[in-house]
């Protein structure tokens, strides 16, 4: 299960990713928004991020104007590793090395074709584990308030 959310700045990218998910018969839940009327991104990021940490979905997409506000908000939720990417290499590496569970995209940075290209990579690239798991564990320790 995939979860998606966007504000007005990212809604076109979200719709493009949904079209791809439909074509692939991949199940998803869409937390809105559904048009280009201005909305705040943080509540949408919160809903998508919590759906993941609650086990409702494995991964998600959050789209806003830059992807940045969505990523800052989503990363406040314990267990979320949200990455803003605008190139294929970063989208691949954030799965391989960071085990990212949310990909954030900017509708004022990339077009719909690029968003779908990055979404495909994000969904199809595994986490490498190994030494990278140790680093993910260190991030979790920071979340628990530990000073490393
Ligand atoms: C909305 O204008 C814009 O600030 C938002 O979409 C996003 O880019 C924030 O990071």
What would you note in describing this structure?
With 148 residues, this protein is α/β, with parallel strands linked by helices. It has a single domain, classed as Sugar-phosphate isomerase, RpiB/LacA/LacB (Ribose 5-phosphate Isomerase B, Chain: A, 3-Layer(aba) Sandwich). 46% of the residues lie in helices and 15% in strands. The chain has 6 helices and 5 strands; from the N terminus they run E-H-E-H-E-H-E-H-E-H-H. Strands 2-1-3-5-4 form a 5-stranded parallel β-sheet, with helices on both faces. Strand 4, helix 4 and strand 5 form a beta-alpha-beta unit. Helix 2 packs across helix 3 (68-74) and helix 4 (88-96) runs parallel beside helix 5. The protein is globular and about 45 Å long. 36% of the residues are buried. The mean pLDDT is 98. The chain binds D-ribose (RB5). Residues 7, 9, 41, 64-66, 68-69 line the site of D-ribose (RB5). D-ribose (RB5) binds at residues 7, 9, 41, 64-66, 68-69.
Query: What is the number of helices?
Result: 6
Distance between the termini: 34 Å
Overall number of strands: 5
Radius of gyration: 14 Å
Strand count, sense and closure of the main sheet?
5 strands, parallel
Q: What is the average per-residue confidence, as pLDDT, rounded to a whole number?
A: 98
> What level of helicity do the residues show?
40-55%
Element order, helices and strands?
EHEHEHEHEHH
The proportion of residues in beta strands is 5-15%
Bound molecules: D-ribose
Uncertain parts = none
CATH superfamily placement: Sugar-phosphate isomerase, RpiB/LacA/LacB
CATH fold-level label:
Ribose 5-phosphate Isomerase B, Chain: A
Strand order of the largest sheet: 2-1-3-5-4
Number of domains: 1
Shape: globular
């Amino acid at each position: 299960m995939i979860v998606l959310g966007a504000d007005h700045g990212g809604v076109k990218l979200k719709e493009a990713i949904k079209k791809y998910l439909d074509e692939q018969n991949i199940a998803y839940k869409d937390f809105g928004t559904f048009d280009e009327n201005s909305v705040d991104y943080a509540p949408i990021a919160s809903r998508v991020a919590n759906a993941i940490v609650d086990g409702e979905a494995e991964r998600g997409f959050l789209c806003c104007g830059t992807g940045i506000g969505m990523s800052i908000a989503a990363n406040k939720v314990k267990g979320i590793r949200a990455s803003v990417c605008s190139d294929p290499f970063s989208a691949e590496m954030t799965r391989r090395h960071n085990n990212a569970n949310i990909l954030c995209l900017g509708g004022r940075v990339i077009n719909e074709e690029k968003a779908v290209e990055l979404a495909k990579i994000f969904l199809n690239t595994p986490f490498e584990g190994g030494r990278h798991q140790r680093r993910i564990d260190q991030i979790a320790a920071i979340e628990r308030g530990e000073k490393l």
